[in-house]
Amino acid sequence: MFILNADEPKELATYLQQIKWLEDQETIVSLSKPGEGNMNCVLRVETATRSFIVKQSKGYVEKYPQVLAPASRVLTEGAFYQKIAQADAVQQIMPKLLGIDVTNNMIALEDLGKANDFTGLYDVKRNLQEEELNQIVGYLNGLHQEFQKTVVDDELANTELRTLNYEHIFEYPFKEENGFNLDLIQDGLRELALPYKKDVELKKNIERLGSLYLSKGKYLLHGDYYPGSWLKMADGIKVIDPEFCFYGLREFDLGVLFAHMYLTQQKESAMTLIKEQYVSFEELNPTILNGFIGTEIMRRLIGLAQLPLKMDLKTKDRLLSFARDLILQ
Fold it and tell me: Each residue of 28-48: b (16+ CB within 10 Å) or e?
């Protein structure tokens, strides 16, 4: 199996020529990381005339090699890109798929250009503008409306990766002893988290929400719709990294979105705008939606998938209490 490596441009060029992603005489001028990816190895390939992105998944998480993950997961992401190419409104907001190499668990994507994602929001100093929020909600409208099924089936089930994600969202953060010392993140966070890890009623509700997450549904979801998946481009916001995609409940994508509005301390007007702009918001199950919002807030505060949050313990305490109330409603 060919292993993607930023330090071996000649070997990569030979491989890319073999699978026809590079012309025979085309050489690599530059290799770089387009961003801080967690799950996969991602490189920007630049030649004399163009650039594109290559992305490879391995049998572990790129950022945390000790965490095992399904090796072929990027092929599901490739299938997602093939699917959304049918809808211009969605495709225009995402990179185009250029190629899939099943043998080496690799895909090639259009390079949208050098851009920042929205993780700067975790400084808790900036409010999203109305036009930005409209674009963020507009993407979900397009995805959920264009790709919905009348009969639930196994397409893009993404079972293995979802099972891993389930553990990190619904189980791991709520274990009393999980080997992760929260005080290394912020002094006092371990003690703050302990009551929630001991809360039997809370954990029962989270377990039910986890079952809903693992169930199949009618709507195609991005699966990880948070500021790290949004790019700020000159022509508007673009969306990347749908590796956790699946057909499921719309409440999950919306729940993650709302959770990160609270985590980045957005104004109440932002929440109102999302509710107004999301098509058929009144059809959503508020109990399930609130449950997913609360669980995402809690797992980001006391789980392994930490954010670069500039937030004091007092604010985290308030958010955890708020999240618990949402889950137990």
Answer: beebeebbebbbbbbbbbbbe
Helix (H, G, I), strand (E, B) or coil at 115: coil
> Edge-to-edge strands of the sheet including 116-117?
116-117, 230-233, 236-239
pLDDT in tens, the chain (329 residues): 898 888 888 999 999 999 999 999 899 999 999 877 778 999 999 999 999 999 999 999 888 888 889 999 999 999 999 999 999 999 999 999 999 999 999 999 999 999 999 999 999 999 999 999 999 999 999 999 999 999 999 999 999 999 999 999 999 999 999 999 999 999 999 999 999 999 999 999 999 999 999 999 999 999 999 999 999 999 999 999 999 999 999 999 999 999 999 999 999 999 999 999 999 999 999 999 999 999 999 999 999 999 999 999 999 999 999 999 999 98
| Residue 302 and residue 196 in contact, taking contact as beta carbons nearer than 8 Å | yes
How distant, in Å, are the alpha carbons of 18, 40, 325 from that of 32?
Answer: 21, 14, 44
Are residues 181 and 193 in contact, defined by beta-carbon separation less than 8 angstroms? no
11 close to 89: Cβ distance less than 8 angstroms = no
Largest CA distance in the chain: 64
Task: Please write down the HEC assignment for all residues of 257-304.
Answer: HHHHHHHCCCCHHHHHHHHHHCCCHHHCCHHHHHHHHHHHHHHHHHCC
pTM to 2 decimal places: 0.96
Q: Are 174 and 196 in contact (CB under 8 A)?
A: yes
